[in-house]
Amino acid sequence: MIAAHQRIPDAKLLVIDADGSLVTAPRTALVDFLRRGDLVVANDAATLPASLRGVHQPSGAIVEVRLAGWRARDLRDPRHWTAIVFGDGDFRMRTEDRPLPPALDRGDRLQLGPLDAIVTDTLGHPRLVALTLKGSVEHVWAGIARHGRPIQYAHVPQPLALWDAWTPLAGPPVAFEPPSAGFAVDWQLQDTMRNHGIDLVTLTHAAGISSTGDAALDARLPFPEPYVIPSATARAVRRAKLRGGRIVAIGTSVVRALEHAGAPGRVRAGMNVADQRITAATALRVVDMIVSGTHEPGTSHHDLLRAFAGDAAMGAMNATLDAGGFRTHEFGDSVLIARQRVASNAEYSRHSGVDRGMRSAYLVGRAPG
Prior knowledge:
The structure is a single chain. It contains 9 helices and 19 strands. By secondary structure, the protein is an alpha+beta fold. It folds into 2 domains: about 5-45 and about 160-365, QueA-like (3-Layer(aba) Sandwich), CATH 3.40.1780.10; about 50-145, no CATH class. It is globular, with a radius of gyration of 21 Å. The chain starts with 11 loop residues before the first strand and ends in a 6-residue tail after the last helix.
């Protein structure tokens, strides 16, 4: 199994603390960079088999449809989607080399295995459409489950099984690609966090696709993504903030949900749609640290990381990742980034006299020594 590979002992973690210092550690040491009272928030979304092969009925051409966004607010209704459509081919071909589909028009019918799909709108790009899957909710869920495969890219040569794309916390089937930072949160880490007084809660966020294969369309990512924050998670965030704990997001999808729902000292419970883009210009209101995979500069995921660390720290991070042979993509190594800040005068006074190494340890929450 590919997903099990993420929990092997040699997975690496690059830590960027709040003053920009870098430390490399085994990923199993993640808890050493957290402290009692911190709150870890993970995405419990399971990954859909969102790649559906079929036929464009007007032309007879083979197509691959990748479901990429929910158009229904009810995440139990799988009939209405935003979708990326490719011409013939599969994941063994680089996404950017995939051919365009035949010209798609409103009303076109696609036969996707047992599912009958109708193009209900075109969305300003030859690959991007609104799609309705015909039939009852039960019929459509069954058709997706039987005919769909997980979205996959050429860097993984063997076909993925669906469970390869499920994290240890996978629950509701609402994500289009794995909320892959969650691969690090295995049962052993969860037990270790509990023993260290670090709480873990979840939310559900419909993590979107990472690439469309077209630069102009990629610039529109991420698409609006629904999320649900349980009342218990909202209460836990508020408690952690009141007691001075840090909010540690497992993945970019968690950051998007928490920041969209953020209010001073708390987050709002309930369902909503994250439609913002988080970049270096974003003032984070909720999340203090992020655990993430590595991401290429220029992608929306990398832009989100820049909300935590300045250009100098991000440049150093990228150089260290390259030089250290860190594994990339969704089945790779991890980074832990603390939101950079200028410590208050009171903090400097309380911790005056400590050397830089001890100050760095304080800022990332480790006990010095």
